[in-house]
Request: fold
Amino acid sequence: MTMLQETPPLDGQMMQGALSIPAIMDYAADVHGGARILSATVEGGLHDYSLVDASKRIARLAHALRAMGIGPGDRVATLAWNGYRHFELYYAIAGIGAVCHTINPRLFPEQIAWIVNHAEDRALFFDLTFAPLVDGLAEHLPRRMQRVFLSDEAHRPETCAEDVLAYESLIEGHPDSIDWPDLPETAAAGLCYTSGTTGDPKGALYSHRSTVLHAMSAILGIPQAFGSAKRILPVVPLFHVNAWGLPYACPLSGTDLVFPGPHLDGKSLFDLMETTGTTGAWGVPTVWAGLIEEIRQRGRKPKALEMLLIGGSAVPPAMISALEDFDIRTIHGWGMTEMSPIGTCTRPIAGASREDRIANAIPQGKRLFGLEMKIVGEDGTPQPHDGTAQGELLVRGPAVVNGYFNAPDASKAAFDAEGWFRTGDVARIDSAGRLQIVDRTKDLIKSGGEWISSLDLENLATAHPSVAQAAAIAVPHPKWDERPVLAVVPADKEKGVDEADLLAQMARHLAKWQMPDAVITMDSLPMTATGKISKKDLRSRINVDFGDDT
Ligand code: AMP
Reply:
């Protein structure tokens, strides 16, 4: 799209109804009031209520927040699992014009303290699980920050100081309806810091408008997942990029939500899906290994489960195929914290064969409405969308950040001269608009001047039955600059990885120079706080000396 330079267009004569988060809840309670929100709670047991009930508690919480002195623009932090109280915080905080700042509890305490201070959070709401963490952090938190644990007095953690409030007491007695303030749709509503592999964490500050548009685009892009007959279980956490927009997209579309609480192992997920009749679940690839194992052991899938939406890292083809064995479809999505987060997703092909379904779910799919994508060469020149040319992927759209929160230097570096956001991913786009992520710019392996995709190596490795997980990294080499080395986790610890057979299988798909120079078996791969394989940690652990092996 190009900008109009001279003649201004004629203004339309339409009202400016705000695209706001409270408008989602008002609409949802009115139109889909009976939709359910089920939560496996930290205290134990399953909590189950309707959207109408949720909207009443949200109103009470909004009044309580105001009574605490929280006002427009204030940041309010959460450290919590996926559950109904966390969901209520999303709506009440944003509804009064404050900013819901979700924090990843898997970060190191020093990182959490840094983020809370950078965001200048006014209050912190936390699950019982994280009471010791919050205790330990106390002296590093802003002095006047109010703390609230997400339960009732009966569950007050022993270590909690007296001035730490109980959520249920906090909201008690407040009216269960509210006139939401008129907020400009550009007002900030949510804040999430990227885990940031280099430098300090950077905050993506979502607006009401970006959040609503992202939710609507997600419903348009993945229509088969949503609707009153569907129940979605976000394994993807509310503490990371708004659980991929589900807390907004589900109420908007009348879809039931199933929050899994703290237990994300295969057995707990299977049982929860079974008892709640979950039809779809969303999360990163690493969380599905346990569920697939459980499904294999029981010889069947949870009865209503139709599809998994998998993203955050490339989905190994072997995972798509394992799910197909049990009649579970994969939607593959790609996105970033800075993109609210979904950018693209695969679209099912009606009547496709099993092979075609698998092939269709391997690339990252097509863009959501509103998002524009371009790939550029090293000098910034746009590359054709022909499925062959590859380059860095840049994006723009109404759900993409235009800077980082209070970080002018990081913000400058993140955009090109035309204001497109640099994703740091290397990709191809074909003539049908399908995105294929080749690698992270910094994870590509350059051997003898030729690029090798670490993703290709990993996908081939995980296709071997003796491999559960794989990660390829570049190791410095005196002659070739870099050579690929593969770290693998065996599917069966006792049997280990059949290295000769693995390499023979990979050699059928790769040129000799693309093959890994070493295969290293590990008990587990290092993970980031968002459940992705941490190549940075892996590089520091793997030390292959090629010497002068030229
Ligand atoms: P985050 O902001 O932590 O969610 O990380 C975003 C990054 O994760 C992207 O820039 C990609 O490198 C990676 N990523 C997300 N989804 C996918 C996917 N489906 N395939 C490959 N990489 C992905």
Observations:
- The radius of gyration is 24 Å.
- The longest strand covers residues 467-477.
